[in-house]
């Protein structure tokens, strides 16, 4: 009742303010004016790394993406998506909003929701929310998966477990080791002198001169030995 009165009061406040010359944002005036009566229904919707699907679509696919949860300071509301709707507001801005129509479980702690000793959340699938408030904005929902317990006895027990689904491309956890790479790349300092001004060989290096002389002597001895061996071969042939 309060919500309906607020909607009527807000619409009256904006319309009366416009007639008095008060200025409001264009998108706000279009939002207060109300959406079109025609809406578009979609089988699936992707947002914030989640892929939401209608529960009826799981009959033809193997994945289960219809579980949602809306977390509030007081309670957590768990439900199942029954329809995905796109609402459009006429006007210059052409606002569009995607909402999820859900069937909610009873959020009462102890009757509809429990937390086990090992910190596992379980819900009673046979209890539903008695208040009719099925619609939420898609950006408010987080994705969960409902898993039944593998029971041998008490197969009809309505309590099922809830598993939180992480969004795609996001890994949650704690890192105890610091990364090896630097947090930022530093630019190398510019050299003050060019390569032509830097001496590549020290002219006063005496060890280098000794090595060159020794290499020349070894090379001359080698050529001398080869010449002597050549002369001996020639003399043997002449004999």
TrEMBL record:
InterPro entries: DUF4216 (IPR025312)
Domain DUF4216: 86-152
Residue ranges of the TM segments: none
The organism's place on the tree of life at top rank: Eukaryota
Segments of this protein annotated with the region Disordered: 211-239
Pfam families cross-referenced by the UniProt entry: DUF4216
Composition bias, Acidic residues: 230-239
Protein name: DUF4216 domain-containing protein
Species for this entry: Cardamine amara subsp. amara
Lineage: Eukaryota, Viridiplantae, Streptophyta, Embryophyta, Tracheophyta
